């Protein structure tokens, strides 16, 4: 098969690669659409030791099974018998794996092998480009669910999202789908901000006032954590999704003295993924038209363009 292979820092090669060998219980999926994630960019830049070269990246995939079913892929492979999985918290399974991380190759390829239980069928009215958004939206759906559960009942239901990439946009859309009407987002890239405002009907506020009960950091740098610490109201909630860098930013003294809740979140549960798909398929998350598509064979240029800030759409999808 053909695959886009990460071969070294800022180097991707479109070349022949061994076909995946499905394990017992796996299904072979012919990939139609696969999104470029921030974690793929971290690997591309050499910032993720969990993804050593050579490796096929990509975990936001949708495609067709050998028996003709349209499916979207939950890329998180867990042990169904672990304590975490049996309690409905598969994302905390100690033996969790994800495609695009050894030992599982990713979906920037013609085919990927994945357990059958990780597939969700896609209805006819939903395109596979839209279906490929299930994974990043599920990350934000899970985060929104946890954040809203942590808010005090007396607190104003008001949220601000830091970062206008796919995860930030999906967080804003998920919060709105869950009943919040006052949701704003900050995005310093003016082209991206205009796209979000004009295409996705997102309220952009790059200078929000402090006193916001729920802050979502969808970037994860020291500067955005400092921003979240300053903006959140006493007794409020900071939901931290971004994995930009590991250290710095949180005002721990203010977080302690003002009894602010900080929640870290990783991926989603199996039920969150299914609930996300249901919300997408029913139209609760909007038109899902905030993507740009390119051929997988041009993936190296796509990565370079994202790094240079030339892509206005929150999600760039590659097509094998």
UniProtKB/TrEMBL annotation:
Pfam families found in the cross-reference section: ADH_N, ADH_zinc_N
Tell me yes or no: is Zinc among this UniProt entry's keywords. Answer: yes
Enzyme Commission number(s) of this protein: 1.1.1.-
According to its UniProt record, which cofactors does this protein need?
Answer: Zn(2+)
The portions of this protein that span the membrane are none
Instruction: Give any GO molecular function from the UniProt entry.
Output: (R,R)-butanediol dehydrogenase activity
A single GO CC term, please? cytoplasm
UniProt-listed GO biological process terms: butanediol biosynthetic process
The alphabetized UniProt keywords are: Metal-binding, Oxidoreductase, Zinc
Q: Which Gene3D superfamilies match?
A: Medium-chain alcohol dehydrogenases, catalytic domain, NAD(P)-binding Rossmann-like Domain
- Record domain Enoyl reductase (ER): where: 8-318
Name the family the entry cites.
Belongs to the zinc-containing alcohol dehydrogenase family.
Name of protein? Putative L-galactonate oxidoreductase
Species, as recorded = Pelagimonas phthalicica
Taxonomic classification: Bacteria, Pseudomonadati, Pseudomonadota, Alphaproteobacteria, Rhodobacterales
**The gene coding this protein:** yjjN
């Amino acid at each position: 098969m053909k695959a886009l292979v990460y071969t070294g820092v800022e180097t991707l090669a479109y070349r022949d690669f061994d076909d995946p060998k499905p394990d017992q219980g796996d299904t072979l999926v012919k990939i139609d659409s696969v999104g470029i994630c921030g974690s793929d960019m971290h690997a591309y830049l050499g910032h993720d030791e969990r993804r050593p070269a050579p490796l096929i990246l990509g975990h936001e995939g949708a495609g067709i099974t050998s028996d003709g079913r349209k499916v979207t892929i939950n890329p998180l492979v867990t042990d169904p018998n672990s304590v975490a999985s049996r309690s409905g918290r598969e994302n905390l399974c100690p033996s969790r794996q994800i495609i695009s991380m050894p030992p599982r190759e990713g979906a920037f390829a013609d085919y990927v092998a994945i357990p059958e239980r990780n597939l969700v069928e896609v209805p006819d009215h939903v395109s596979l480009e839209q279906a490929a958004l299930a994974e990043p939206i599920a990350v934000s759906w899970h985060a929104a669910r946890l954040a809203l559960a942590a808010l005090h009942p007396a607190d104003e239901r008001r949220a601000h999202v830091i970062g206008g990439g796919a995860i930030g946009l999906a967080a804003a859309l998920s919060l709105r789908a869950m009943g919040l009407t006052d949701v704003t987002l900050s995005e310093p890239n003016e082209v991206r901000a205009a796209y979000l405002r004009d295409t996705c009907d997102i309220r952009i506020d790059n200078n929000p006032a402090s006193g916001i009960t729920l802050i979502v950091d969808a970037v994860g740098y020291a500067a955005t954590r400092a921003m979240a610490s300053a903006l959140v109201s006493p007794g409020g909630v900071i939901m931290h999704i971004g994995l930009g860098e590991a250290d710095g930013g949180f005002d721990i003294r203010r977080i302690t003295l003002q009894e602010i809740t900080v929640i870290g979140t990783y991926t989603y549960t199996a039920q969150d993924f299914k609930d996300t798909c249901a919300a997408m398929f029913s139209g609760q998350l909007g038109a899902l038209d905030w993507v740009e598509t390119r051929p997988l064979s041009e993936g190296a240029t796509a990565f370079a363009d994202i790094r240079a800030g030339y892509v206005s759409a929150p999600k760039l999808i590659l097509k094998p």
